[in-house]
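Table S2 (continued). Query chain:
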Amino acid sequence: MLVLDVGGLAEALVLARTLTPWFATAKVGYELYAEAGPAAFDALHDLGLRVFADLKLHDIPNTVGRSARTLGRRGVEFLNFHAAGGLDMLRAGVEGLKEGARDGGHAEPIALGVTVLTSDADTTAFAARLALAGDAGCDGVVCSALEIADAHALGLRTMVPGLRLMGSDAHDQARVASPGEATERGGDWLVIGRTVTGARDPVAAASRVAAEVEVALDA
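Corresponding output:
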């Protein structure tokens, strides 16, 4: 999954076109969404990419439910919610997302609960937030590679950020792993960002990620 935290839509689309041989899904976060809004979803869909709306919704249940419904109607394939928002909020978000997708005639999207950000070294809240995501009907969670097994034990799929190629800068991430390690641990979707997009040669870096994942899958 390619992270497009690059600001403007034109720049994001150039990067997406360059790297589509290695990625099937693009992540639209706050930065790109603030710049381009839902037009980013449409443009990436036009390139044949699935869309992860990484907007981490967190508000009162009514607001989250209505917002998720709107995003579901836009056809996003993935949407996440801060599990810290509680059970009622998560349930409202999951239900709103699915309803919106049905209203828009889209395939059922994936609802994800955000457990603990990979930039946070303190994972004290992880177990409670994981349980909330499961109880609320989330399809999966966003977690580090170190927590994949815990999520799978509850029947939840995993979206895994904080991944870095060997020798790459960890930047602001506290709990990192390599793409190969995350694959070996059973990560369902790997979030690949600055280790590729910030590389001197993004194409070469993307190729390294793909090769590392392939080796891990064949092991």
